[in-house]
Design goal:
By secondary structure, the protein is an alpha+beta fold. It is built from 6 helices and 4 strands, in the order H-E-H-H-H-E-H-E-H-E. The protein has helices spanning about 15-25, 45-60, 80-95, 105-110, 135-155, 170-175, and strands spanning about 40-45, 120-130, 155-160, 180-190. The protein has a 4-stranded antiparallel beta sheet with strand order 1-2-4-3, with helices on both faces. Helix 1 crosses helix 5. It is globular.
C-alpha cells in the first residue's frame, strides 16, 4: 500500500498476458457482498489499444470537454476540506513537471495524456451492470484496489483513470459493451519510468486523528 501510487509515465516494455491474468485472478478475491462479483474487465494492448487511442484522440480533439459522464466523478459543489484537497493535488501534479497554473495549453496537453494511457503498454477498462447500486460499486472499487496492489507486488505500476468515463461512448462502442453494462473507469498498466519527475512525488494523506474516532480503548 505504501508503494502504490498513480504512475503517469511508463517504459516501452510489454507486459505478458500470463502476468496480467495472474493479477486479475488474484484480485478477484476482493470482498463482494452476496458473492455477486459485479466487475468486468476489458484488457487491451498492441493493435487494439492503438486503434482505440486513435479513435478517442479524434473525439477529444473535436471536444476537449469529452462526451459527458454517466455518473458524477465529483460532487458538483465540493465544500471544504475536499475542495482544497482536490486543488492542492492538482497543483502538486503540474508542479512536478513544471507546468504553471496559467499555462492552460500545457495543462490540457498533460490531461490529454490520460487518453494515451500515459504511454502504458496495457489499458484496462472496468465496467459494472447498470442495475447495481452503491454497494456493488464499492465491491468494484475493492477489486480495482486489489488489481493495483497485486500489480505493485509484481513490479508493475498503474494509474486508475476516471477520465475515461468522459469518453464512455467511444470506449463502449469500441469494446462492444452491452447496453446493460456501464463503464466505470480505465487503468494504465505497465512498467513505471521510475526516473520521470511526474512519478517522483506523492499526494498527501490526512493524519489518523482527522478521520478516525476510537471508543472503549
Amino acid at each position: 500500500m505504501a508503494l502504490r501510487s498513480s504512475i503517469r509515465a511508463f517504459l516501452p516494455r510489454p507486459v505478458d498476458r500470463a502476468l496480467i491474468e495472474d493479477i486479475l485472478s488474484r484480485a478477484a478475491r476482493a470482498p463482494s457482498g452476496g458473492n455477486l462479483q459485479p466487475w468486468h474487465v476489458d484488457v487491451l494492448t498492441g493493435a487494439p489499444l492503438v486503434a482505440l487511442k486513435a479513435r478517442v484522440r479524434e473525439s477529444f480533439a473535436a471536444n476537449p470537454h469529452g462526451e459527458g459522464t454517466e455518473y458524477p466523478v465529483y460532487p458538483p459543489n465540493l465544500t471544504e476540506p475536499w475542495r482544497s484537497r482536490r486543488f492542492e493535488v492538482g497543483e502538486q501534479l503540474y508542479a512536478s513537471i513544471g507546468i504553471l497554473r496559467e499555462d492552460r495549453a500545457g495543462r490540457l496537453a498533460q490531461f490529454a495524456l490520460n487518453y494515451d494511457f500515459f504511454g502504458a503498454p496495457v489499458g484496462l477498462f472496468f465496467s459494472i451492470p447498470r442495475g447495481f447500486g452503491p454497494p456493488q460499486w464499492a465491491h468494484l472499487g475493492m477489486f480495482i484496489q486489489n488489481v493495483m496492489l497485486v500489480a505493485v507486488e509484481r513490479g508493475l505500476g498503474t494509474c486508475p483513470q476516471e477520465a475515461w468515463a468522459a469518453m464512455h461512448k467511444s470506449v463502449g462502442a469500441f469494446l462492444g459493451l452491452p447496453e446493460d453494462r456501464m463503464l466505470y473507469c480505465g487503468m494504465a498498466l505497465g512498467w513505471p519510468d521510475e526516473g520521470h519527475p511526474i512519478n517522483c512525488w506523492r499526494s498527501e494523506r490526512e493524519p489518523l486523528e482527522s478521520f478516525a474516532n476510537f471508543s472503549g480503548f
